[in-house]
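Hi P.,

Sorry for the delay on this. The queue was packed all week, but I finally got your sequence through. Input first:
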Amino acid sequence: MTDPTAQPAPTGASAFEVQPKKKGLTRRQKRGLSRGVQYAVFVAAVAALAVAADWDRLRNQFARPDIAERMFPEVITLALQNTVLYTVSGFTVGLALGMVIALMRLSSVGPYRWLAGIYIEIFRGLPALLIFIFIGVAVPLAFPGTEIIGGTYGKVALALGLVAAAYMAETIRAGIQAVPKGQMEAARSLGFSPARAMISIIIPQAFRIILPPLTNELVLLFKDSSLVLFLGVTLAERELSKYGRDLASTTANSTPILVAGLCYLLVTIPLGFVVRRMEAKAQEAVK
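Then the structure:
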């Protein structure tokens, strides 16, 4: 006998309790709201600065067209040209010396590794300014009567090269170690000597890996070339920073400083774009 008062068992979808929908924002909506608040705060801060700034004084101090016009074409044909020349010469010296130091770091001979390590630690730890002062003052005192080949250009190339070599050496060493060991073994099996295999097989592959960081080092040297003023330069040897400062002192206006800064950007921004393109291609090659 069945109990006539018993309730029938729930069947189908009614067997499960209907869960109430969660109230509130989803994660995506929260991210969007957070981003919107950040944008609003940023725009408000920029607008507040724009309203509070005295644009007439800024324009008069940093954007005088008559003063900027006086700088051309000498700011390009002299100052920018010297800056590029100092940078390229320093980069060349640094790359050659950095290659030697990197190979010393990888050498099986202990004293070579120790000397390379000491050099890297010293020249990475010292400010570039001290290296320039050392080249301009200490070297002539230590070796009286000796002149560095190239005069000021040679001194700048040596100072920038000594600083850059310490950083480039570590970059080159990392690039060499990133090349698969099988490449050296394959070259040795073909009869290559260790030196020839390193020069012909390993180093070219390493340079493909380290091109982006080396280009970054070129950008840093381009800016560090402004330290040439501590060596004492003639009017014909001035680079962008020195040229801008001299003209700013003469005119009692900061427009030359702004123009010199824009000339730096004419070189550094394209180089930065090249670095990003090379990094993107390297990532695509890995994929």
